[in-house]
Specification:
There is one protein chain. By secondary structure, the chain is mainly beta. The chain is 11% helix and 38% strand. The strands form 15 sheets. An eight-stranded antiparallel β-sheet has the order 1-2-3-23-22-26-20-21, with helices on one face. Helix 6 packs across helix 7, helix 6 packs parallel to helix 10 and helix 8 (943-957) crosses helix 9 (977-988).
Length: 1019
């Protein structure tokens, strides 16, 4: 009985682990030695098919090798190509997908191809059917399986011709080939190529650069149609299409007419006469010949990379398929090293398969029901490829033979330990074992130490060692998420893991872990699920395993945060799917339908022109880049003016990992007029998260009852952040000059005593004003206060509205701005007041005088957080701008985020405020250093340097820089060559101006000039 053997007894296990993980090499072994491949795992996965894993030391580094070994003496072991999708080359797939589709129990990538094409260069012969002929590839060899089940590795060639009724013939260059070049040979120029149903539903059709082409459609060996320069033809199921160009096209056009019979001969030739091939799969150059490892060298595939190869023994009865991994755990190999490896593994002849990102091996392991990926692909994900080599187990289903135990190798004291078995039959097919009929013995989860669990079924038994872990071996408890943030009344699950002192991570279960809350009012906890109560609050979740305690913060509830008013949003655009709808809609800022403030976003869409049987999308894109949401919002709110269209309204989110998530605003837009919609941000997002779009979806179901076109408006996008008591305003009785903060935005002080009750402004429609998130209602039983002093915590200038409840209208209260920065307003009486943000920007800088040419730019950019002062009240408008300051200014303007993975290699120091922006700018190629590894942060920025940095930044932003020509400076010879293009473009666009006809590239720029420049670009 074969099982997945670990090749270790208890004593051998220590030896193997030492060999795998010990960092000290045995005496006499050098770190750069290449050692023989060491077998670590082996398992029969099918009749005559063995799966092996090796570790080989090459140049002192580990290389992981996965080998599928096929015994062709076994009549149930079959080797044949897998290709395309659905039995044709219409679409490429990953090796795993191909194996699942065809039922292969193991597979590896095979042939070479170009990424733009869906067919390979080489041969694919499937049980006698030629689905892809061998291309003209000098010195390439392929794998063949003969009718007597012998594997050969030889050079195969293709020979074909078409014969016309008049007896004239023309060579067929290939079957189901897309264009390729080889040794100066063009596969389709002046040639005839043949396309069968295996190519896909249609023929080759128009090929760029080959506009003079002819296609002859043949069905049942009779010409059905002759097509000249027409779109690709449908390939008859019982026929083919002949495609000709140049001389080949002329032959087809002159030698045939509709109704003529067609004769085609097509065959694959081997270098050994008399061989009859059942299947064939293409590869590349020879690695091993007659038991000797060759020294292959191909410049286009050099490097220490992932590799794929195939080899056979001298009798041709054993096939070896090998995948060499290139990853953080595995070095990869050079081509010559691969040749040595194939000889070492027992190959008499071997050849190279496509490697690098294409190297993939998949298999259905013993007792598994699904194919799984065995190697880590180079690049992280599987590449879609046109062909592979598939291994099949053709044996019939049989009786039960044995099983494997599935379950944890370690379990925590007192926790549940769930074990299952996966069965296999006498032919190594999966066998469904009724789990309730398995008898289990052993394993006491209350006693730490190494124990045994034993499973028995139908007389077969298997024992497995399990380690039960107690507190003495635990280093810490890990809870995910590390902070629980939940809306009122909602539930959130969490996971608990334990890290052992030797670094292993073990899952915990509710059975062996105690959980509780520090405050009963937070809610309840059952197992690993926390359900929040109906009150906002903060506390801790207490997790206890075997006396070890872990506490994590818990937040219940949310607080609103103003995010986007749609008043000054730039870069809006419209797109649609299918693409044919992209010109039928728009997404713009308008003033005709506003919930409040001055503008709203209008989305017009029209789905007419695309099939109603397809799902259709209309996207309003919120800018050139997604809008970054601050903090860790749990949900969002949006005012939507609906059109009662019953369409689906959503938004795209992009998280910190680049993963797209979705907000569902409304499954159906079943309302007209303004309505406030709420949507939860998916718990799977990795913060920070950005919002990319708001869009309408038309699904095929019920589309006949929905309008094809419509218009929506959006206003006041609000985020809901985790509850923070410091920002939560409660009803309060205040005395004179006692400060009260509203939603963490505004502080108010009365000159007398009163009761202040916060009022949410979210449901209030106040056109033309941007209110704070909370207003306040004044009441009292004493004399009414006369004034309220109000200041925005972000330094903005504030105004005040009073609700005249008798008229149900808002009245603007005129106030006075004090020297302290507060705004003083006379109170109109008891009632409701709403603070709002004044459009007048506050100037905090004493050296930015009113009326100066740079005042507006500096003040407005300061309000937007794009520029900062040299101090709290000094901007330094005439100070020379430094390199670090300008890079930081660009970063603030373009919204660059600090990337901890980026590193700086400059030898001189960079100010802390500039480090995040400099890292991003250097990584994007926007700025470079100086010889000697210096950045020179404090060096004055020259006008030439500014032009280049700005030019590079605008290119990275995707700005339109066309048309920036026609400006000539009298000192153009003084402009450095490296800055010439940037200066010409920036000056031509009007972003940087000359002085009396000169550019003066070495002059320095001032801070005011830089602020004015960015202000101009920001409009």
């Amino acid at each position: 009985m074969w099982l997945w053997r670990k090749y270790r007894s208890q004593a051998a296990g220590l030896l193997v682990m030492a060999m795998l993980f010990c960092s000290v090499l045995p005496s006499g072994v050098r770190a750069n030695d290449t050692l023989p491949a060491r077998l670590t795992e082996e398992q029969i996965i099918g009749e005559g098919v063995v799966l092996q894993t090796y570790i080989k030391k090459v140049g002192g580094k580990d290389v992981i090798l996965t080998v599928t070994k096929v015994d062709l003496n076994n009549p149930y072991a079959e080797v044949r190509p897998i290709y395309g999708k659905g039995g044709t080359f219409a679409e490429k797939q990953t090796i795993t997908e191909m194996a699942k589709e065809t039922g292969a129990i193991a597979a590896i990538n095979s042939d070479f191809f170009t990424l733009k094409n869906r067919t390979p260069f080489g041969i694919a012969l499937d049980k006698g059917e030629l689905v892809s002929s061998m291309g003209r590839m000098p010195y390439w060899v392929s794998l063949g399986i003969t009718n007597d089940r012998t594997a050969i590795i030889e050079r195969f060639t293709y020979q074909g011709k078409v014969t016309a009724p008049n007896g004239s013939t023309y060579v067929i260059q290939g079957v189901n080939k897309e264009e390729y070049q080889s040794a100066g040979y063009a596969s389709h120029r002046d040639q005839v190529n043949l396309y069968t149903p295996a190519f896909g539903p249609t023929s080759l059709g128009l090929l760029a650069g080959y506009e003079d082409y002819v296609e002859v459609v043949v069905e049942n060996d009779i010409v059905k149609e002759i097509r000249i320069k027409q779109p690709a033809a449908s390939i008859p199921r019982n026929g083919y299409v002949l495609w000709g160009h140049g001389g080949g096209g002329k032959f087809l056009q002159e030698a045939f007419k509709v109704g003529d019979p067609v004769q085609v001969s097509s065959s694959t030739l081997t270098s050994t006469n008399g061989l009859v091939l059942d299947s064939a799969m293409a590869g590349h150059i020879l690695l091993v010949d007659n038991g000797t490892a060759l020294a292959p060298s191909v410049s286009s595939i050099r490097g220490t990379v992932a590799r794929s190869a195939a080899g056979i023994t001298q009798d041709g009865k054993t096939l070896l398929l090998v995948a060499v991994e290139s990853s953080s755990k595995s070095r990869g190999m050079e081509l010559a090293e691969l040749a040595q490896l194939m000889k070492e593994l027992g190959s008499y002849r071997a050849f190279n398969l496509d490697g690098g990102g294409s190297t993939t091996m998949a298999a259905r392991k013993l007792a598994d029901t699904e194919i799984s990926l065995l190697n880590q692909p180079q690049g992280g994900t599987q590449r879609k490829v046109p062909t592979g080599i598939g291994i099949f187990n053709t044996a019939p289903k049989g009786d039960f033979k044995g099983f494997l135990i599935e379950g944890p190798a370690q379990v925590l004291k007192g926790n549940e330990a769930v074990f299952r078995v996966r069965g296999y039959d006498i032919h190594y097919h999966p066998f469904a074992v009724p789990q309730q009929e398995v008898v289990w013995t052993g394993l006491d989860v209350l006693s730490p130490g190494v124990q045994e669990v034993k499973g028995e079924y139908r007389g077969f038994s298997l024992t497995r060692q399990i380690e039960v872990i107690g507190a003495s071996k635990v280093s810490q408890i890990l809870v995910e998420p590390s902070v629980l943030t939940v809306n009122k009344g909602q539930a959130r699950t969490f996971t608990v893991k334990v890290q052992t002192k030797d670094g292993k991570i073990v899952d915990a279960t509710p059975r062996g872990v105690a959980t509780s809350l520090s405050t009963d009012t937070l809610g309840t906890v059952s197992g690993f699920t926390f359900t929040a109560g109906q009150e906002e609050g903060r506390g801790e979740l207490v997790v206890n395993f075997d006396g070890i305690e872990k506490r994590i913060p818990v937040n219940v509830g949310t607080l609103p945060q103003a995010f986007e008013s749609f008043d000054a949003l730039t870069g809006l655009s419209y797109s649609a799917l299918p693409n044919t709808l992209a010109a039928k809609g728009s997404f713009t800022l308008v003033e005709d339908q506003v919930y409040r403030t001055k503008k709203a976003a209008r989305l017009t869409y029209n789905f007419a022109g695309a099939p109603q049987t397809e799902i259709r999308f209309a996207y309003g894109l919120l800018g050139a880049k997604p809008l970054a949401m601050p903090g860790t919002p749990l949900s969002a709110g949006l005012w939507v003016y609906g059109d009662n269209s019953k369409h689906w309204l959503r938004s795209e989110l992009v998280d910190a990992k680049g993963t797209t998530h979705y907000l569902d605003w409304a499954k159906e837009i079943d309302f007209s007029g303004w309505k406030y919609l709420m949507a939860s941000i998916p718990s799977a997002v990795t913060y920070p998260v950005s919002i990319k779009s708001v869009y309408v979806v038309n699904t095929p179901e019920g589309t006949a009852q929905r309008p094809e076109s419509g218009t929506l408006y959006f206003d006041e996008l609000t985020l809901y952040q985790p509850y923070d008591p410091s920002k939560d305003t409660k009803p309060n009785d205040v005395i004179a000059q006692q400060g009260v903060r509203l939603a963490g935005e505004v502080e108010i002080k009365l000159d007398g005593a009163a009761r202040i009750e916060p009022v949410s402004t979210i449901p209030l429609q106040i056109k033309g004003y941007k209110p704070s998130l909370q207003g306040f209602r004044l009441s009292g039983n004493v004399q009414q206060p006369q004034t309220v002093a109000m200041s925005a915590l972000n330094g903005s200038q504030m105004g005040l509205l009073y609700l005249d409840e008798s008229q149900n209208t808002w009245v603007e209260v005129k106030g006075t701005r004090l020297a302290s920065g507060e705004n003083l307003f006379p109170l109109q009486g008891w009632g409701m007041y709403i603070p709002y943000y004044s459009q007048a920007a506050v100037n905090p800088f004493k050296d930015v005088k009113s009326g100066t040419w740079y005042e507006k730019a500096v003040v407005e950019l300061y309000q937007q957080g794009i520029v900062n002062g040299l101090s709290k009240d000094q901007f330094g408008p005439n100070a020379v701008l430094t390199r670090a300051q300008f890079v930081t200014l660009l970063g603030n303007w373009l919204g660059w985020k600090d990337d901890p993975t980026l590193k700086l290699d400059f030898k001189d120091s960079i100010p802390g405020y500039a480090v995040p922006a400099v890292k991003v700018a250097v990584s994007k190629g926007i700025v470079q250093g100086f010889p000697g590894g210096l950045f020179k942060s404090d060096a004055p920025l020259t006008r030439a340097q500014m032009s280049v940095m700005l030019y590079n930044a605008l290119q990275d932003k995707g700005a339109d820089l066309s048309g920036g020509e026609g400006v000539t400076f009298v000192d153009r010879a003084a402009i450095p060559g490296w800055a010439s293009e940037a200066v010409q473009t920036m000056a031509g666009k009007g972003y940087i101006k000359g002085m009396n006809g000169s550019f003066k590239p070495q002059d320095t720029a001032t801070r005011a000039q830089a602020a004015s420049l960015i202000y101009q670009l920001n409009q």
